[in-house]
Write a structure and sequence with these properties.
Elements (H helix, E strand, L loop, with lengths): L2 E4 L2 E6 L5 E5 L3 E6 L17 H6 E5 L7 E5 L8 E4 L3 E2 L17 E2 L8 E3 L19 E2 L5 E8 L3 E8 L10 E2 L4
Length: 181
């Protein structure tokens, strides 16, 4: 993708060969452009939510003791449904300090640079009032998860981790993954 706007399927018609063709609404809303994160860049529109993810998730206070925020479902979700995306800046290995939680608490594998790459949510972007383009970084750990991280080729952010459901998750439930502890 170079750029795109949101549209919906209004109907489906058969072409002269009998192939079903979707008829889309007029595109509207924010123009999303391809933006791959770098060491010092997440995206140019950090407060614009991913339109797909927006249908499924919202940030609320976690019900897990000791946790702050989490992501919750806005609707019932079936197993094997992509729920949320984990976009961020690419972590600079020079700045990596394995002794401090503050520089590691939002780091995750970078599927575009395995085995050495890492995606990070810098301190300034950990507040959803400053970055909410994607919300998978707000997902909390559980030893009994209802979702897992997998790899996704996102049209806007490129190859990034995403969260997919592993069980039925009902509206209002917190989405939880195993961090691999």
């Amino acid at each position: 993708m170079q750029s795109a706007q949101q549209a919906t399927i209004e109907s489906i018609i058969d072409d002269e060969s009998g192939v079903k063709m979707p008829v889309f609404s007029r595109p509207s809303g924010h123009v999303h452009n391809r933006q791959i994160g770098t060491y010092d860049y997440i995206c140019k529109d950090p407060l614009i939510r991913d339109p797909y993810e927006l249908r499924f998730t919202e940030v609320q206070r976690s019900r897990i003791p000791g946790a702050s925020e989490g992501i919750f479902t806005k609707q019932d979700i079936e197993p094997n449904t992509i729920i949320a995306f984990y976009n961020g800046s690419r972590a600079d290995p020079v700045e990596f300090d394995p002794t401090t939680w503050e520089t590691n608490n939002y780091r995750i594998f970078d599927p575009a640079d395995i085995p050495n790459g890492t995606i990070d949510i810098p301190i300034w972007a950990q507040d959803v009032k400053r970055y909410c383009g994607t919300l998978a970084h707000k997902c909390n750990h559980s030893f009994l998860p209802n979702a897992e991280f997998v790899v996704f080729d996102h049209p806007k952010f490129g190859l990034i981790p995403c969260i997919t459901s592993t069980t039925d998750i009902y509206a209002g439930e917190e989405i939880l993954v195993g961090y691999g502890y």
